[in-house]
Design brief:
Layout (H helix, E strand, L loop, with lengths): L17 H4 L3 E10 L5 E6 L12 E3 L6 H13 L5 E9 L10 E9 L7 E5 L10 E8 L24 H4 L8 E3 L2
Parallel strand pairs: 1-5
Antiparallel strand pairs: 1-2, 1-3, 2-7, 4-5, 4-8, 6-7
């Protein structure tokens, strides 16, 4: 989203708070789990932005698209993985974007990964969206995770399987503010 700055001849006005001026960006995030030989979560890194850290496939919901359609599209766009199956919705998380403060409403969904396929691969995003041309290094990492994911994206893994509780929850920090379960 582009921002406009005042022209030199206009007087600057106070900027409204992002949480009060913008509707939340409706998003989905995918916990794609490969169950065999042992549980593993699909994550990816962006070599062009190593500071972003490992993350799960996630992105915006298009107008008229339901979360189940959106999550399958995002998984395919960001990782190239097809054949995953949506199992259920896990939680809705209302935390704002960590850098911009833009309001977000993210539905986390559980997906079963196809049983075959590589453990690690590279994928270049096609199409004309904001991620077009980006290169992602995708892999399945064992659960429970050894390290937290970017943007606290692992915060709801304990709702899928209590043994997969994210380190921040195990350390007593609980789920992030603005998150609520769906069950």
């Amino acid at each position: 989203m582009a921002s406009s700055s005042p022209s030199p001849s206009s007087s600057p006005s106070p900027s409204p708070s992002p949480s009060t001026s913008l509707p939340p960006r409706v998003r989905v995030a995918a916990y794609v789990i490969r169950r065999h030989p042992s549980p593993a979560l699909l994550v990816f890194d962006q070599p062009a932005f190593p500071e972003a850290g490992p993350q799960v496939p996630a992105g915006g919901v298009a107008p008229g698209e339901d979360p189940e359609q959106a999550v399958l599209r995002e998984v395919a766009e960001e990782t190239g993985l097809t054949g995953a199956r949506v199992v259920r919705r896990i939680a809705v998380d209302g935390r704002p974007h960590p850098e911009t403060g833009q309001p977000r409403l993210t539905t986390y969904l559980l997906l079963d990964a196809p049983p075959d396929g590589p453990e690690e691969w590279e994928h270049r995003v096609r199409g004309d969206g904001g991620d077009a041309g980006m290169r992602f290094v995708c892999r399945f990492v064992p659960l429970p995770l050894a390290h937290p994911l970017a943007d606290a994206q692992d915060a709801h893994l304990g709702r899928v399987e209590p043994r997969w509780v994210a380190q921040r929850e195990a350390a007593g920090r609980g789920r992030p503010d603005g998150a609520r379960p769906l069950s």
